[in-house]
Amino acid sequence: MTxxxxxxxxxxxxxxxxxxxxxxxxxxxxxxxxxxxxxxEIVFRSRNLVLAGNxxxxxxxxxxxxxxxxxxxxxxxxxxxxxxxxxxTLLGVLPLAVPGYVGAYAFIAAGGAGGAIDTLTGLRVPGxxxxxxALLVLTLFTFPYLFLNLHAALRTQDPALEDAARLLGxxxxxxxxxxxxxxxxxxWLSGSLLIGLHTLGDFSVVSLMRYPTFSAAxxxxxxxxxxxxxxxxxxxxxxxxxxxxLWLEARFMRGVFLSRVSPATARKPGVVRLGRLRPLxxxxxxxxxxxxxxxxxxxxxxxxxxxxxxxAWAGLLDALKSALGAAALAALTTTALAxxxxxxxxxxxxxxxxxxxxxxxxxxxxxxxxFALALIFxxxxxxxxxxxxxxxLIIAYTLxxxxxxxxxxxxxxxRATPRLEEAARVLGVSRAGALRRVTLPLLGPGLGVSAAxxxxxxxxxxxxxxxxxxxxxxxxxxxxxxxxxxxxxxxAAPYALxxxxxxxVLTGLxxxxxxx
Length: 516
Hints:
- The chain is mainly alpha-helical.
- It is built from 24 helices and no strands.
- Pfam families: BPD_transp_1 (PF00528).
């Protein structure tokens, strides 16, 4: 390990730090730029407390409900004799392919008078709305973040402590709650952080469900009321909540040490036989499959059959081309920027490498609406011609999702021993040449997974696209949102189905690559 960063790694790292911190700093300056009297009126509005309370209530509730869904499903897939396991794993992962606003569209278009369920069966099922509607949709389409972490932890957990608890006379349930669950804390915190950040930053689901939160208020103030100072303060309030979530996760992880003391190889956990609980388990799995896959897909196909506007199909092709082109370009730029950051994080020690790595993750932790607003304020002040251009949109995608691309690359770097680079250096190859000729060929799978992750995330991204995309730049996400907001469910169906289909294909490819 070396502490000195070479220029070819330092330059992209500095650009990333500046790209994330400068717009956020300007957002603070913009928020403080109003008159003192106006600032007091803005800061002490009673509505701010309502928005904060609603946001925190929704975030805490989503964490509870996603745990109630993800933990049983992860246990069934990892520890029980319920088969096939691959089907259970797919059920826990595939909802990631459906963006929250597509799920909200499906539930809204399925319920109520004239909805898909009412028309097909004659049953009048109330359409979801408000807090409970937002909670339902966010739970069903964010629980995979928690499932993936819990499933991996349950599969690799050493059963020695559970065996010891059973030998001491504890029942199976006492062992589960007293031994197994506490050892899932790191996995739960990791997945819960992602869900919490997603819920705090979500504005599409809460807007469609008419549930007021910070994110929904930011969008309304900026696009409808044109009150940019108040929207800046709302964005800062959202950043405070995000910072609190990051602090809590770090606080709860402090002192966690779950590695094995014995150097012996850990045994695989035993298989739990469900017995009489098998019908209950299959009922849970079937209900989850209906809510996350069957109902959304059926609703989209139903409304798709009612769409007879030829212009909608022509617009679908254009939106698909725009979405795929932007996602591909952002995947390339993000992966290229993530590579030097991952090298810094895995090959260098010291204060500055840690600062650079944390700054890269700050862009991902910042809610998209707040980040987009910061970029808008900064660009309009410094480089106005860049506003509402494709380069600005790609920059926003890159800075926001670069942290998502660092993980798979860094995992590959951990497996690629630095001794190969050292050998190349001894043979006279420069540091940059050793990285390019020796290490880079070993990172092919990690680079591919990183690009696929970013491609899928950009394809689903809505807030950055709505606020930063050029005029006339239509994507699948943008059309699903606009048509659903106007209750034109038939017109939204082709875009929602295309988005879900592409997302499912990409999710399957990512899973296959990771298994390989």
